[in-house]
Design a protein that fits this description.
- The chain is mostly helical.
- The protein has a single domain, classed as Orthogonal Bundle (Arc Repressor Mutant, subunit A), CATH 1.10.10.
- The chain has six helices and three strands, in the order H-H-E-H-H-E-E-H-H.
- The chain has a three-stranded antiparallel β-sheet.
- Helix 1 crosses helix 5, helix 2 crosses helix 3 and helix 3 crosses helix 4.
- It is globular, with a radius of gyration of 18 Å.
Length: about 150
């Protein structure tokens, strides 16, 4: 149980929020030459991993809500990194796929993304970093049903 100190700065939610801010700042610092946000990278990486898919499936794979997926994919399309086409089976769905430029960006950005991830856990000992990842995965899995984007 988390100790109730009344000090909001020690609340798990506040600490996770602050760590998220740090993670985004490190990502943007390491990946600045690519002009991508973490959400844009997540979409590109999911498409590289799983191939073309409809926007709803893509949102589920990246835990990004439908509205945000629409905005992010529109932006990536405008930059020529993905293409969206109507599904031949159901015109209500957009099928999203990487362009050749998108594939190149995913390949080229990976070392910078890995550096950002390394920097996030750099203050920790190796065993602590492994434990942190395990604990975050456990928290996410147990609480995922509460998320707006599943």
């Amino acid at each position: 149980m988390v100790e109730d100190t009344g000090d909001f700065t020690r609340f798990p939610g506040n600490l996770l929020r602050r760590c998220h801010q740090v993670a985004v700042a490190l990502f943007l610092d390491e990946c600045s030459e690519f002009n991508l946000t973490p959400l844009q990278y997540a979409i590109l990486a999911a498409l590289e991993k799983d191939g073309p898919q409809d926007q709803i499936t893509l949102g589920g794979a990246t835990a990004i809500d439908r509205t945000t997926v629409t905005v992010v994919t529109r932006n990536l399309e405008e930059h020529g990194l993905i293409e969206r086409k109507k599904s031949p089976r159901d015109k209500r769905y957009n099928i999203v796929s990487l362009t050749n430029s998108g594939r190149e960006v995913v390949r080229d950005i990976l070392p910078a993304v890995e550096n950002a991830q390394r920097r996030i856990v750099e203050p920790l000992e190796k065993e602590e970093a492994v434990q942190l990842i395990m604990l975050l995965e456990k928290m996410m899995a147990a609480n995922n049903k509460l998320s707006r984007a599943r």
